[in-house]
Every structure is written in C-alpha cells, then in structure tokens.
Design goal:
globular; six-stranded mixed sheet; 15 helices; binds iron/sulfur cluster; Lambda Exonuclease, Chain A; 6 strands; alpha/beta
C-alpha cells in the first residue's frame, strides 16, 4: 500500500506532475485522495502490472555499467527477468517498479518505513494471468525493439525533470524514453501507455505538452547530449505494440497548458485554503468548481464513467456520496498538522519555523505577492523560465 508523498501547503497547489494534472482535471476528489491526502489504499492490478512492465522495458535498453553489454537483450533473458520482477513483487519481496528489496539490510539499518504493496486483485489467480499477459507483451516488444536497440541511438530512460518557478507553478515528472540519433541532431520522446491514446490526447493532451517543455528544459540544462531538435513524440501502446505519433505542440498549446494549470491552482487554493482570486481567474470555471471553492470540498465527478478506470479510491468516493467524508479543507488541515507533529517528533527541527501557523502565514504573504505579478502574455514570456539556464550559459560564454 503505497502512494505519492503528501505535499505541504507551500507546494500543494502550485507543483504539478504531468500525470497528476491529468487526474486533477478528470476528477477533483480522486486527485485529493490519491495525491494530496493519500490514505493507504491497495493498488490497482493493472496499474502495478504497468509499473513492472515499464521497469523491464527500461532494463532491456540499459547497458551494463562496466561491460557496456545489454544483459537482457536476448528474449530468454528478458522473459526470465520479467518472471523475477513480477513474481518477486507479487510475493512482496520488492516493489513492482524495481528490484530493491523491502527488507534489505540497508533499509533495515535505516529503519526504512517502506512497506510492501497491497494489490486489490479482482479475482483469484489474476497475478498469474497478468504474468502470462506480460510474457506476450514482452515477446512482441522484443521483436519490435531489438532492431531499434542496435541502431546506435543514444537513449535516456526514465528521465526525471523538475521545472521550478514557471510563473508561480512547478512542473515535474518522468519521461519514459528519449531517443537521440547517433549524429545527435534529432530526438524523439516515447511515452509508454497501457492502451491507445485517443486523437484529442495525441493532438493537444497536456501530458505530452508538459513532456515537450521538459525536453526543452533538460536540453537547456545540458542534460541531453548535443543540442538535438525534437522531431517527434510517440505514445507507445504496449498492449498492441503500436507507436502512435503525437502532434508537436505549438505556442497555443503552451498558453493553454499554462492557463489550465493556473486554473487548477486557483481552484485548489480556494478549496484547501479559502483563498480568493479576482473574477477573471474564475470566470471559466463550472458551477461545481465554484461551489467547491466556497464550501472547501472537492467533489467527485459523478456519475462515474470512463474517468474512473484505474481509480483506487472508489470506496472513499462512495463514502463521500453518503456524506461520510470530512470536507477537503478540514481533512487537509488535519492531515498536514498530524504529519508535521510526526515529523517534529522524528527530527531535530527549528520548531518555530515549521509550526503550521508560521508556514501558513508566510505562505499567505508569498501568494499575495504572486497575485499582483502580471500573467505572462507572450510565448517569449512563457518560455523564459524554461530556457533560462541556456540563456545564462550563453551570456557567460559571451562575457
Ligand atoms: S470513482 Fe470515479 S468519480 Fe469517484 S473518485 Fe474515482 S474517478 Fe472520481
């Protein structure tokens, strides 16, 4: 039973992951329960299966650090490591996305609280069905990717990124794969998916827009070898072994992304802290959102439908319907205070600086300062913080 690390008031409404933002747009209650005040909830079987497959795809493309050989290049080796990863995780020896043992001597010495994951299996023997399904996926993946692995492409795998201070927002996430051709001039992004992406997502979904910005940011930071141009983005549907080409994003998409995330921030500032913004920030919001901001609650998107696929907080959602859940604002305040109290017990911290009252007050002033800051209007203004490191370097070179 694991989940994301809970966020404190400083970042809870301004820091967005590429996947978290998608969840928040689809259903506020789900985002609250999965990312803001996560409760120990068993994971969805297909979600952990996807994590395990991602990890094995990564192993396939990773050379051994000393020999430079690829230990899982042969199909038999790939299927053998799949068995070890999946069955080991089912037996609670390590997480689904790594081979790091839960109870390794290192973790024990640290008294690491990491716990094995509970999975809400839908029927008896589902882990075995998914194991065999994984063999089929990896056999097809191998046939399709073995040639690509040998073509001299440089690959960045599971490339994490954080874009701090993007006009009052922070973006973070992980890009599954960046392929850079040997001549280092052209790059493409690959995002692994458990199913087909629909056309609107390929055309302008925010997850890929964030990845494109992240690519520019990583390149500006010198984290991508050479200065390759981004020539394509793909969603790889590993269940059907299909590469779907996505549209490269333009200025309108970046502006749209910024406005969408700003609206999310305004909404959650209202829900969690009762903060008010001028009407131009809220005029596009639905009545449901405006009501949530006033009442301090985060409503699920009812009736349930496609957006509920892989949702692991269905039980809590039912409780909300029956009026058995506290409002989001109270739940968050209590959750945060409990967490702070626990942290202060464990750490030698300066008590006054981390007291919730001090944090909240300091945060209030910071937000007031941000409110009077002008909203970026041009592409140049929008992109400035993303390309800032490259500009600083070229200024340094010139001087
Ligand atoms: S079950 Fe559906 S409506 Fe309920 S929280 Fe999950 S995604 Fe939202």
């Amino acid at each position: 039973m694991r989940g994301p690390r809970p966020k404190g008031p400083r970042t809870v409404t301004s820091a967005w992951s590429a996947t978290g933002a998608g969840v928040a747009l689809a259903c506020s209650f789900r985002y609250l329960m999965e990312s803001i005040i996560p409760e120990p909830t068993p994971s969805n079987p297909l979600a952990v299966w996807g994590q395990a497959l991602h990890y094995v795809f990564q192993l396939f493309y990773t050379p051994h650090p000393s020999t430079g050989n690829y230990p899982y290049a042969k199909l038999e080796a790939l299927l053998a490591i799949w068995g070890r990863v999946w069955l080991g995780a089912v037996n609670k020896e390590h997480p689904y996305n790594s081979l790091r043992e839960f109870r390794s001597p290192y973790n024990q010495a640290l008294k690491n609280p990491m716990q094995p994951e509970e999975v809400a299996w839908e029927y008896e023997g589902q882990h075995w069905t998914l194991y065999q399904e994984g063999i089929k996926v990896l056999t097809a993946f191998h046939a399709q990717n073995e040639e690509r692995r040998r073509n001299g492409t440089i690959r960045l795998l599971e490339q994490s990124f954080t874009i701090r201070r993007w006009h009052g927002l922070e973006l973070h996430g992980v890009i599954d794969r960046i392929d850079i051709r040997a001549e280092k001039e052209k790059a493409q992004l690959v995002d692994y998916k458990n199913g087909r992406l629909v056309v609107p997502e390929l055309e302008s979904g925010i997850q890929l827009t964030i990845y494109q910005l992240a690519f520019f940011h990583l390149r500006a930071n010198g984290q991508i070898p050479g200065q390759p141009s981004l020539v394509a983005m793909f969603a790889y549907n590993y269940r059907r072994q299909e590469y779907q080409r996505a549209r490269l994003r333009g200025p309108d998409d970046v502006g749209q992304l910024f406005w969408t995330l700003l609206q999310l921030r305004v909404y959650w500032d209202g829900v969690l802290f009762g903060r008010e913004y001028p009407p131009e920030f809220t005029r596009d919001m639905t009545n449901l959102k405006l009501r949530d901001m006033k009442s301090g609650d985060a409503s699920p998107l009812l009736p349930r439908g496609d957006h509920c696929r892989y949702c692991r907080v269905f039980q809590q959602c039912r409780e909300w319907e029956l009026g058995k859940r506290p409002r989001a604002r109270e739940a968050y305040a209590e959750h945060y205070q409990l967490r702070q109290a626990k942290r202060m017990e464990l750490q030698r911290v300066i008590p006054i600086a981390s007291h919730p009252l001090v944090v909240n007050e300091a945060d209030r002033y910071r937000r007031l300062a941000e409110l009077v800051r002008p909203v970026p209007m041009t592409m140049e203004e929008l992109m400035a913080p993303i390309l800032a490191p490259a500009k600083a370097r070229s200024r340094q070179k010139a001087s």
